[in-house]
Design goal:
about 160 residues, alpha+beta, six-stranded mixed β-sheet, globular
């Protein structure tokens, strides 16, 4: 993991942010499995996606780590052109905070870092979605300043 920045969360927890490397894959897989525990993930398939993400200049994945080196949170997303904003938009597809780190400002720090990166890339907006049952996450996003703007739909192919 390449260290990018160090700061503190809202409760003074020293936190560093770093872009993910291939060596961080086990931590990524653990975050994914913990958040979406109703899905099953093939390790090889997930690793192949992970490798594409870390090699794609229009994608990002980074971690928040505590001073002791433990992983506290992960953020993944993409930059894409959209007619909706007539320009570049940032889609935050995963914002995951380890349960024992919640309520300490880690999610806010991850979003702050992601949106600062998006702004420096020239993005006009940031979007995200959240599963219907994740009401605590919805409250967090609204408190952060995101607004409900659409219904999300998906269809498996």
């Amino acid at each position: 993991m390449n260290e990018n920045e160090t700061n503190e969360t809202t409760d003074g927890l020293p936190m560093s942010f770093a872009d993910a490397t291939i060596e961080d894959f086990p931590a990524t897989l653990e975050f994914i499995r913990n958040l979406w525990d109703y899905n099953t993930y093939d390790e090889q398939e997930t690793r192949a996606v992970y490798e594409k993400v870390i090699d794609d200049p229009n994608s990002f994945i980074f971690f928040a780590r505590a001073a002791n080196g433990s992983y506290c949170g992960m953020c993944h997303g993409d930059y894409f052109q959209t007619f909706w904003m007539s320009g570049l938009t940032c889609y935050v597809s995963s914002l995951i905070v380890r349960r024992e780190c919640r309520g300490r400002g880690v999610g806010t720090a991850l979003l702050d870092h992601a949106l600062a990166r998006a702004k420096s890339r020239g993005c006009k907006a940031a979007t995200l979605d959240s599963g219907l049952p994740r009401t605590a996450a919805h409250t967090f996003y609204e408190h952060y300043g995101f607004e409900k703007s659409c219904y999300g739909f998906e269809k498996y192919l």
